Amino acid sequence: MDASVPDCLINNYENLIGVLEMPDPDDRHVLAAAIKGKVDVIVTSNLKDFPESVLKAHDIQAEHPDEFITHLIDLRPGAVYDAVKKQRALLHNPTMTVDDLLLRFESLELRETTAKLRAVAELL
After folding, report:
1. What does the longest C-alpha to C-alpha distance in the chain come to?
2. Which of 5, 18, 28, 109 is at a distance of 20 to 30 A from 86, taking alpha carbons?
């Protein structure tokens, strides 16, 4: 990931961890890094541990991956389709057909994403 997205790492957030209160204290580092990185969204399947009441104070929201990817498809469909196509091409052990990959996405609770991608499967 570091090679593909050079500025993806957030450093020097550790001093915030101790002052943050979260339902699961083990998630404080995620919020601390999000605050330090000035991010808008934390993408997580674990929404219950990132309540709006805590995130709102930092102008951050949490989104399930399905919601996040669906928004990306709405904003930049071609870029998402290309990314899915590239991802599928990189899978060698085992290789995956488009249907295989979409079934995998569905098993990861990416139902809306899968529905949108299924509608354009010939592009993937």
Report:
1. 50
2. 109
Q: If you write DSSP's letter for every residue of the chain in order, what string do you get?
A: -TTTSTT----S-HHHHTT---SSGGGHHHHHHHHHTT-SEEE-S-GGGS-HHHHGGGT-EEE-HHHHHHHHHHH-HHHHHHHHHHHHHH--TT---HHHHHHHHHHTT-HHHHHHHHTTGGG-
Reported residue count of the chain is: 124
What six digits make up the tokens of 106?
């569905």
pTM flag (> 0.85): yes
Give pLDDT tens digits for 58-114.
Answer: 999 999 999 999 999 999 999 999 999 999 999 988 899 999 999 999 999 999 999
Q: How far, in Å, CA of 124 to CA of 113, rounded?
A: 13
